[in-house]
Amino acid sequence: MTRAKKKTKKPGSILLSRHRGLRADGPSVVASRALSNTSSLSSKVGRTLIRNHHTLQKRLSQALSKNDTESANSIRAEIEANGGIERYQQASVCGQDSQRGGDSSKVLIDWLREAIRSSPNKKITNKRLPLLEVGALSPDNACSRSNLFDVTRIDLNSRNPSIETQDFMDRPIPTTDGERFEIISLSLVLNYVSLPAARGEMLERTTEFLRHTSLEGEEEEQQQGSRVTELFPSLFLVLPAPCVTNSRYLDEKRLEEMMGNLGYRLARRKHSAKLIYQLWQHVGKIQSSGRQREFSKKEEVNPGRTRNNFAILFR
């Protein structure tokens, strides 16, 4: 049998596509059995499944970067045997269930409602803001129910007709502000990207999708010192806490410096035992390539044997 010619993919695309690491000819029977037995998952089982999936995806990316086809195929089969992307997404959706307090967008809504209450200008506060939700799992989260946004939802492996199947890194760059957004949500998305340079590329790309001109009534808001204009346009970033609090190569200071190089200012932040929530307002242009070279190599900021290796790099 003649093998189909394998398509060449951009390095970032391989890393950013959760479903592209799976084989169509894997042990689907095992996967389907796993799915049929997990219509609902306990919090503990869901967390374990998500953790294992992330570990396997990291190993897969490492194997692919070394052109180790044998190891890569073995890891793909293991991912599929565990239920693949479908079971991983099921665990993620269960984790977002309101009864478990897992919908991270509630934090964003709280920040916005607080700012809106302080605003005297209804030209802005009555406007539904365009929001791009990357890695959307459900059309029924707090953002969707708030009536504050016109939400565009994308995910690599959509499970719902209201969510477009799309890789953010393949989404066409907007050419007008009418195509751009007030807020981009990257909630537990960046940590899924396997390579540090691909994470930096994703963060840098967000700036292309945020509004560049003022909203109607924004200048008046600024003159009145409103807290609403402190928030837009912005990136809502949610990461597992250890990515920032227990990494050898990243802490809050370094992350703030890196985001500053992309023209972001930290507007809001919240920490929980498991997650870090941040709202970054985009206020300026990306710094020169020379300035960004400061962050092109890993630099140890938290020495220690128990640290993890999460990092973000700019090319």
Automatic annotation (TrEMBL):
Major enzyme class: transferase
Organism whose genome encodes this protein: Choiromyces venosus 120613-1
Family note: Belongs to the BMT2 family.
InterPro entries (alphabetical): Bmt2/SAMTOR
Pfam families attached to this UniProt entry: Bmt2 (PF11968)
Name recorded for this polypeptide: 25S rRNA adenine-N(1) methyltransferase
Sample GO molecular function, one term: rRNA (adenine) methyltransferase activity
Chain intervals for the UniProt region annotation (Disordered): 1-21
Residue positions binding S-adenosyl-L-methionine: 135, 155
Compositionally biased tracts (Basic residues): 1-10
EC number assigned by the record: 2.1.1.-
GO CC aspect terms: nucleolus
Localization: Nucleus, Nucleolus
